[in-house]
Amino acid sequence: MSAPDEQTQSGPRAVPGSVDVAVVGAGFSGMYLLHRLREMNLSAVVFEAGTDVGGTWYWNRYPGARVDVESLAYSFSFSEELEQEYEWEERYPTQPEILRYARHVADRFDLRRDIFFGTRVTAAAYDERDAAWLVRTDRGDAVTARFLVMATGCLSFSKLPEVPGLERFRGATFHTAHWPHEDVDFGGMRVGLIGTGSSGVQSIPVIAEQAADLTVFQRTPAYSLPARNRRLRPDEIADMKAGYRAFRKAQRESGFGVPVAPATKSALEVSDEERDTAFEAAWESGSLVNLLTAYTDLAVDLAANDTAKRFVHGKIRQIVKDPQTAEDLCPAYPFGTKRPCLDTDYYETYNRDNVHLVNLLRTPIVEITEKGVRTSAGEYAFDAIVYATGFDAMTGSLTNVDIRGRGGVSLKEAWSAGPRTYLGISSAGFPNMFMITGPGSPSVLSNMVVSIEQHVDWVADAIDHLDRHGLTTIEPEPQAQDAWVDHVNLVGGFTLYPKANSWYMGANVPGKPRVFMPYAGGVGEYRKKCDEVAARGYEGFSLSPDGPAQQRPADD
Ligand code: NA7
């Protein structure tokens, strides 16, 4: 174990010159990892670009921002005391409530003293001679670490639309992922909003209530299900807390990190009435997963999926009064193949007189002008434009740091044809670097907190294994990585996911390789695989006392 020794400067506290582990990001991943590393008596430093903990929940402060997994399930399981003492207020908490939780965790476990806020990691280079990473920040810090962990989140590198003239607009502009910390009042304003993913779907109803006029520019409609959000009742909180151990086990063994009763029937083998009753119950339940998991084949068979698609289309046509707007809101791609949304009054909002929908498939955006947005049909004038245009998902936050592994090869080059990882945890050529919920792991197809805890535990155990066995480096063997990439593609190919132009596929970023990035095999199966790999002495990894060229020694 290296002790923090020489110091470099970053603000009032000194950044240690050398640590066991450098962690990038103080979201849920970075916070829990820091806690685990401290328990192992390892020295660690966490760099965080924001001025507080929370990651996603620090940045995404747009009006209406909420999580779409239930609060009691979207929470850490590593501390029973934390589980019991924390009081969630709502079924689907708002961003401020989740940020409050993150802050509570940071304070309760005294995490802040090893986190350097307002500090962005710009580069990390692996030194093969010393088997160590040299990590550099935008504040001039340079830290040497035995291990580098990218806890940078899957949806953190935001993107603007690729249209000319963004800088010309004279009014106020906002991006949902960089919302101001102070309140924004749209009262009396004409607002244009571009993008109808989760961020758009959640913010549109709230902005519509404030603004004089709201015009939504939609390229691809979302499938959105009603959240049926409400305050939690004391009895349900007490029941959950009493049954937490069994619930956590069920989460870890489930497909999406959210326990659901397994479907037993095909959507095509039941009568229309039976299916409608089941879909109606899922719609009423206020859940992101109940509709997709109602039948065994909705995610894998187009004809089966069509039944769910028609059901949601029917709901949209029922709710939205203007027939053309309703048609424009009905997605053409299979249900669930782009990330579905949970909403409060999303479709209802289009019945308001002050809300208008522009279908960009008919009239694409040509440019942003001084006054507003020009489509092929004409110019719309606004006082403010909101960009709800999403992220360079899953890889953006990794490849936009200048990470250089063995031979000075950059991660960007190594992944130029799409991300290549072993288990979504590490990548060949980048020894002693780990990713929390990286591409090739269930990540965005799961309750993120469940997947984060599993990865953090696995990484902490791997480091502990190396230290206990006098080993220095861990790196995937190229063949194991190739086999895992093939497996991820194979499993993704069994599903309907590749049928949509989604950010799962990298399709929202021009020029990004089309690869289905998350692992669709389910968090339970995936966890088993990761555990087996560890139990077999980190099978598929090269472990070495002094560099990856050595043979992996037998485990105890
Ligand atoms: P998303 O889901 O990526 O949504 C971004 C939206 O912005 C989506 O509707 C995009 O249309 C649209 N978009 C992006 N670029 C353009 C351009 N150039 N022109 C017009 N429209 C554009 O991001 P969110 O922030 O809403 O949600 C991210 C995740 O957070 C969400 O999935 C949950 O996991 C939580 P497109 O679909 O690309 O045609």
From TrEMBL:
Keywords: FAD, Flavoprotein, Monooxygenase, NADP, Oxidoreductase. Belongs to the FAD-binding monooxygenase family. Its cofactor is FAD. This is Cyclohexanone monooxygenase. Gene3D superfamilies: FAD/NAD(P)-binding domain. Pfam families: FMO-like. GO terms for molecular function: flavin adenine dinucleotide binding; N,N-dimethylaniline monooxygenase activity; NADP binding. Coiled coil: none annotated. The keyword Isomerase does not apply. The lineage of its organism: Bacteria, Bacillati, Actinomycetota, Actinomycetes, Streptosporangiales.
